[in-house]
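Note to self: keep these together.
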Amino acid sequence: MTQHDEPQNDTTPAYRIGDCGEDGRYPVTSPGGADAGHIYRWHRAWYAVPAGQPDSTRTKHPDREAAAAHLCQALTAGILPVAPAAEPVIVPYLRGLKPTPSNITNAARALARLAELAWEPLEGYPGADNRWRMRCFCGWTGTRWWSHLRGRNNDNTPRPENRHEDCIPMARHAETIARLYTPSTTCPCSPGDRTASHPTTPDAAADLLKSVARARKSADHQELNRLVTLLLGPCPAASVRAQALQELADRRKK
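Structure:
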C-alpha cells in the first residue's frame, strides 16, 4: 500500500493507495478512511474514477500519484465528477478496445497463444500491457500480461515458465497442456455452415473484416458481435486463424 500522509502542496490532500485487485483497480482512500474512488493503468496512462461512479467518468493522468491525488482533492473540495462520457461499443473478446483490424488481429494471436498454453481467458483481450484475468489448468485464477506470455525476441517461452506460485510441478505442464489442447488446421465448429465458420485463410479473414467494418458503420451491434465472435471465439483452429489474420495484416503493409 502506498501512503501519503502529508500534502504534497497546498492544494493536494493526503491519500492512500490500496493493493491492486484482480481487476487491476487500486482503491484510494483519504487519511480518515473515506472512499475516494479507484485508479487504474490503461495503455501507459492512469485513470481516476470517483467513488460510486462508472468508469465512463474517468479522468486521465500521467501517473498513479497524480490520479490518486485528483480523487482525494475532489473528495475534499466536494467537486462533482465529470459528466459520463459516451459508453464505448462493447464487443465480445475485446476489453476496452475498438474492433479494428489491428485490434482483432492482435487479439486473435493472443487468444490462440493462450489456448496453446492452456490458459482460459476470463475477460476480453485488453492489449499487451494491461492486466488480463485468466484461469490456469490447475484452477488458479489471477492476472497475467500478454506481453509476458508471448515471449520476446522470437523466443515463445512465456515468463515466468512456472506459470504461477503453487501450480502443479513444471514436469507435468507439457503433458497437461497436450491433454487439454488439441490443435486443428480446419474449423470443425459449424460443419456445412460457411457463414458460421471460423476463418482459417487470409481471404476468409479479409471477407469477415470487411463485414465488421460495414456492421460498425451501420451500428448493427448484433451482427458486429456475431462477426467478432467468428474472428475471436474459441476454436480448435485458433492458431491457424491467427496466422491467417497476421498474414493478411502483413499483406496490407506491403
